[in-house]
Predict the structure.
Amino acid sequence: MDPERIFELEAREEAVEVGGRQVRLLTYGGSFPGPLLALREGERVRIRFRNGLDEPTNLHLHGIPLPPEVDAPHRVLQPGESADYAFRLQPGSAGTYWYHPHLHGQVARQLGAGLAGALVVRGPVDETVLAGIPEQTLLLHDLALGADGTPLPPGGIDWLHGQEGDLVLVNGAVEPALHLPATLSRIRLVNAATARYFHLDLPGAELFLVGQDGGILEAPVAVERLLLAPGERADVLVRADAGAALVLRGLPYARGGKKAAAEALPLARIEVGNLQGLPLPARLREVELLEASTAHRTRRITWGGAMRPLRFFVNGRAFDPHRVDVHARLGTTEIWEIRNPMHLDHPFHLHTHAFQILDRDGVPEPFRAWRDVVNVRPGEVVRILVPFREHPGLTMFHCHIVEHEDRGMMAHLEVLEG
Ligand code: C2O
Ligand code: CU
Ligand code: CU
């Protein structure tokens, strides 16, 4: 067999500098964000994870199509315990991913305290049509810090809206100065915040979306701005003049129940170098189109919640680790109709099985992409197509405002064989 790529990753508390302050965060490998893991399609990978915290945690490789027994989101690793995450990256998995804890009830606090890192999978498309384009990965996060420099756990109203920290960070830095060497460069964006939406623009540059979540698109799509809900990723080509000085901004976004910020927030300064960029590729790859007519059934997933005590529901029930909520059959494709009757936005996320968005409130999705997160706005109905082609077993789906996930907005899916 081909050799394994081995990575060691330890969760531990560490003093790090953020925005000119000494803070104590929960980190992967002592840094915030954790190390960028660069992988390749087809490769065998083993991540040796150790819990060096003084509390239980686990590791989730968000978006990677892993068999449930490898993903193991129910695993509880006590302080000092280790676990290996060993898998092979499937063909077609080139894309942008990330990793974070998944211990039910503790995700918001642990992710909010710094446990997040990006993971990039490269494949043939990166060595052909996108070869030679310089790239950077930008992990977006925010921190709510107490006066003593430790992260504030979510409390009170945070459980309703999700906690937004006042320190908004790009790769752990406040408004960093970034350098894009060429007039055509690539940035991979990861929204690793617990609840903050990033509505991005980059005035003075042209943006072309080339990938979303774990999938490269068929062809670049020109966009003016990008909305990244928690958990979502975007892979973008940036075209600008040599020497341009740009500002990546977070624009106001009125997510349900919360007032939008009054003005745009500068997130990073970007200076474009003098290297003549390559031409924009016309095509990227073939992306299979899933047809609604091939679906075996339609299933309704409805977000919900209740106050006093505050809980969030999927189809009227809060998460129960001992209950299987949905059964599906391996080898079938389903339409999931995700309905959000609430006044809050809720980003839907499914483990293990990538999906395509069919339509939003009846409006067909304009291009094909393989996704693992889709935001569902207040009152909206989003329909997705999910093929269950491999990886039978017990997996989960949830809202990726992780405060909501911790408070019950999660459910089990079991994919049965035969
Ligand atoms: Cu990013 Cu179930 O999580
Ligand atoms: Cu996930
Ligand atoms: Cu939610």
Notes: DSSP finds five helices and 30 strands in the chain.
